[in-house]
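ok trying this again, last paste got cut off
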Amino acid sequence: MSRGRFIVFEGLDGSGKGTQIELLVSEMKKQGRTVFQTAEPTASSTGGMIRDALSGLVKRDAYELSALFLADRIFHNVNPSGIRHYLDEGIDVVCDRYYYSSFAYQGSEADPDWVMDMNLGCREITRPDLCFFLDVDIDSCDERISRGRLSREIYENKEAQTRIRKKFFDVFEKLGDRENIRIINAARDIPEVAAEILKIYEEIKEK
């Protein structure tokens, strides 16, 4: 039995990750693949602490939040119904956000090398086979957030998103060829973006 493929979607808040994930997962299932769709933070107790912080309900600094994300990510990988289990069973995993978000979001406020090292150096954290970064300009993301949210999380403002978008690209440059990251212009029509994502997925599927 072959190992499942691990695909991650990243992007700013309002970049359209949820829509594109649903479209890709649908195509994968049509091709006969079994897919586990997941997201970070998880539904664990640690994930709940993270969501409380992101909503502004509980104030935590970037180092504490980075450590919480690390703990939640380890749980996400090693729990009996986690990422590693599904991949070992030959099931594909598609995840909305992963450690790249920690690098960009918390790494824009805490020491980015520290955030990267503790994730990349942890043997319990699985490396993705492919990461799609959906790139959309800040104004468009902000407009989408305004249309789709009743309230905003702590990073969902133009100043933070501008800083975080730059950090994402800094991180991608630093990672270089160590990670399979594909940057997608997601400001285009949804079907056009989905077609490019599917084409790239088809390329890795054959490997």
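PB: full thing came through this time. The mean pLDDT is 94.
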